[in-house]
Design a protein that fits this description.
The protein has 67 residues and is an all-alpha fold. Helix content is 70%, strand content 0%.
Length: 67
Amino acid sequence: MLSGQLFSNVSDTVMEAGSELYKGCLGYYAGVKIGAEMNFPDADPIQVDLGKRFVGQGRKGKTPQDL
């Protein structure tokens, strides 16, 4: 059906747009973290605020089971 294909295409587009937005946010957050480490004015509160949105994400350290 044409409507089913249209829905699928719109759904795919929304998913891709969300993915691109998320990648951009991660890049911005990485830059803010570097700024906070370098003591740029006002970077620390931004990092704290954004950090709440990225809790539990990122690379995990090796656990004793991995060794």
